[in-house]
Amino acid sequence: MDVRIGIQNSPRELGFESSQSPEEVKAQVAAALAGDAKSLEFVDSKGTVFLVPAAALAYVEISGVEARRVGFVA
């Protein structure tokens, strides 16, 4: 599934592919916004870790349907 995160005062969004379910990501974001968490930690399907400040979140877009890829993937 694809995750796109908008960060306040940043013209670009952070986009990555995750192996987590949409419900897991939604619960993680909701828990961070409701609590006193300083940052959110996401791990993409390649193992890259992303740390995003919870206070700087503008939006989180979660798409559960994977699109069919065309072409070569390295």
From TrEMBL:
Checking Pfam families in the record gives:
DUF3107
Spell out the protein name for this chain: DUF3107 domain-containing protein
List the source organism: Agromyces terreus
Instruction: Classify the source by domain of life.
Output: Bacteria
What broad taxonomic lineage does this protein's source fall under?
Bacteria, Bacillati, Actinomycetota, Actinomycetes, Micrococcales
